[in-house]
Design goal:
- With 291 residues, this protein is of the alpha+beta class.
- The protein has 10 helices and 8 strands.
- The longest helix has 27 residues.
Length: 291
């Protein structure tokens, strides 16, 4: 394995890799990455946009040739890199797989001169300091990809799709039983306004759920970033629709409706976690031709 050179520091997106310390940082916060995956990352950063073959990676990591199953070792190292960067093989933002050839780093890379900070770096640092309280607050509530458990692709994909069908069932069921719901709302002080909110939100959210279903089932590009962009909007409406079990009070008792509501309160956070765990992307275990 080649020794890291102190002068090698690279910045790409919100990440920075320092060969001298062997550290990968995300907005200044260290991201855990073992030695061999970090060495592979440095090799990719040294030649962005160019193909790095599996054979060259194997030669750098195991120069004495004693490692037998180098295919598994290289795949494992690249997977660790993707986990650290929050990247996906099916929709790469950083590391692209070239079937039967190797890998390529596709994001812009900036080499950092020791002792100097580019204007972009200063701007990013200032922006990070300004938003530090918000990031810290969100970090205590929302899980990061590194904090989530590892689960098989079929499990996370199936759960995400089922949650979308569940919400579609809520919306369609509510619109199909407006007369019964109007009777249930009648004792409320603002029954008409409550019924209007129900109708409008259901009409808005049906196409949103249809979009998420299609995006997940057909592996739409950038589904993760698109979902995270609309997630705050979904959070508000999903928490509102967590009250939907009470629309069934003519059929179930109050205690069961309350129990169902408490589970639904967590649903938007579960959807976010499933997307970060790979739902909607391409199955990493699928043959290269299908990715």
């Amino acid at each position: 394995m080649t020794d890291p050179q102190p002068s090698r520091r690279y910045r790409f997106g919100i990440f920075e890799a320092d060969a001298a310390t062997g550290e990968l940082r995300r907005r200044g916060v260290r991201v855990k990455l073992n030695t061999q995956p970090f060495q592979v990352l440095l090799m990719l950063l040294e030649q962005p946009g160019e193909v790095l073959t599996r054979e060259k990676i194997s030669h750098e990591l195991w120069p004495d040739g004693t490692f037998v199953d180098f295919e598994h070792g290289v795949n494992s190292a690249v997977n660790r890199i993707r986990e650290a960067l929050g990247d996906k093989a099916g929709n790469p933002r950083f590391v692209e797989t070239l079937a039967r050839r190797g890998y390529r780093f596709v994001a812009p890379v900036e080499r950092v001169v020791p002792g100097e900070a580019s204007p972009a770096a200063v701007s990013e640092e200032q922006g990070t300091m300004q938003h530090e309280p918000e990031t810290s607050f969100r970090g205590r509530i929302l899980a990061t990809p590194q904090e989530l458990p590892k689960a098989s692709y079929p499990v996370v994909q199936t759960l995400f799709v089922l949650l979308q069908f569940m919400y579609l069932g809520f919306y369609v069921g509510a619109l199909a039983n407006l007369a019964e719901i109007a009777d249930l709302f009648s004792p409320l002080p603002k029954a008409t306004q409550a019924l209007t909110i129900l109708i409008v939100t259901a009409a808005i959210l049906i196409p949103v759920r249809a979009f998420l279903l299609c995006a997940a089932l057909f592996h739409a590009p950038r589904i993760q970033s698109n979902f995270l962009r609309i997630w705050p909007f979904l959070l508000v409406f999903d928490e509102l629709w967590s009250l939907s079990p009470f629309l069934l009070l003519h059929h179930i008792n109050f205690g069961l409706a309350l129990a169902c509501m408490t589970l639904l309160v967590y649903s938007p956070f579960a959807q976010r976690s499933l997307v970060l765990m790979g739902a909607g992307g391409v199955d990493p275990e699928a043959p290269p031709a299908l990715r």
